[in-house]
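User: Here's a structure from my thesis project, written as structure tokens. My advisor, Dr. K., wants to see whether a designed sequence matches the one we expressed. Can you design one independently, without my sequence as a hint?
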């Protein structure tokens, strides 16, 4: 019976004496599917909890449900380059990473590890990341990791929700900046406003129907800035745009760093918008309306980020190679 060369892996020995494996495209996709299914079953507890977080707080963590599809697209996008890296050289050193990752994950599980570690689901995410990296390294070797390390890192960092203990370290400082920025923005707009901590108080002009002065309108920036958790989603989008749209790593790092001030400026504008609308209807200062305003401001933020990416890409201009001058030849063909 003839051997099916389109699906069967071919084993050979490289110049350095190491065993190499050449895998067909169909076998590669099937193997990846099986690997994903096995890992999903092993980490089902963590994955279910992450889906529940995303469903319960879609404004803050809904983007985590899209990250696996983005990672799949990144791998599919580089499928041609991965095929050119064959034959693969399995790195058995990845087995140690798999063992360490699984042990760390189990240690962080409820009822198994220490209490200070098992209540922190981000610790379990670290164990999953190490396990995935070790599994891919064991199967494909070190050479394809030049392309696969970014999708793996992107999956672990941006498909995971973060606990308040980690997030508050950043958001508290950003809330202070947003409160002060929104306060000065409202002052520039001629609004009678006062700032106490993160609480902005607006004093509308005029009287109510009974002739009494209108009551002050509190605008709690801590509540209005709950959308600062969208910073994670914004950074996920910015990181993807930088990786796909820019060529040099220093450009990518610069663009990702610029995402933080863009998010802060947009949030200041968001606070100013909520303040102005609250003068018209005090109900706009609370409830779900501030979330809607946050989504509205994401559109100009995205456009601004595209402009910054275009600007960063122009910092380096590729010059075409100078054409070579032709050398006259004699009848004998010699220059």
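Assistant: Designed independently from the structure alone:
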């Amino acid at each position: 019976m003839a051997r099916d060369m389109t699906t069967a892996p071919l084993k050979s020995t490289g110049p350095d004496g190491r065993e190499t494996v050449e895998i067909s495209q169909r076998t590669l996709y099937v193997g990846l599917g099986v690997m994903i299914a096995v890992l999903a079953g092993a980490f089902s507890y963590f994955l279910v909890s992450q889906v529940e977080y995303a469903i319960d707080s879609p404004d803050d963590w809904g983007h985590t449900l899209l990250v696996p599809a983005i990672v799949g697209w990144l791998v599919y996008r580089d499928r041609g380059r991965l095929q050119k890296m064959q034959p693969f050289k399995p790195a058995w050193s990845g087995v140690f990473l798999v063992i360490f990752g699984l042990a760390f994950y189990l240690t962080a599980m409820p009822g198994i590890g220490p209490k200070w570690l098992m209540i922190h689901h981000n610790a379990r995410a670290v164990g999953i990341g190490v396990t995935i990296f070790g599994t891919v390294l064991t199967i494909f070797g070190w050479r394809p990791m030049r392309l696969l390390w970014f999708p793996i890192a992107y999956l672990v960092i941006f498909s995971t929700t973060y606990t308040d203990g980690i997030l508050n370290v950043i958001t508290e400082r950003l809330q202070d900046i947003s409160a002060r920025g929104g306060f000065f923005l409202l002052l520039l707009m001629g609004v009678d406003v006062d700032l106490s901590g993160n609480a902005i108080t607006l004093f509308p002009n005029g009287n109510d129907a009974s002739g009494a002065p209108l009551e002050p309108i509190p605008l709690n920036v801590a509540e209005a800035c709950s959308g600062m958790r969208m910073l994670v989603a914004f950074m996920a989008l910015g990181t993807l745009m930088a990786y796909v749209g820019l060529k040099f790593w220093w450009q990518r790092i610069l663009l990702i760093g610029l995402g933080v001030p863009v998010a802060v400026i947009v949030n200041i504008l968001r606070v100013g918008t909520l303040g102005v609308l609250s003068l018209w209807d005090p109900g706009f200062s609370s409830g779900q309306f501030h979330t809607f305003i946050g989504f509205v401001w994401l559109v100009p933020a995205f456009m601004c980020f595209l402009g910054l990416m275009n600007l960063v890409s122009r910092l380096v201009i590729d010059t075409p190679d100078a054409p070579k001058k032709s050398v006259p030849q004699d009848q004998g063909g010699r220059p």
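When you compare it with your expressed construct, this may help: The longest strand covers residues 10-13.
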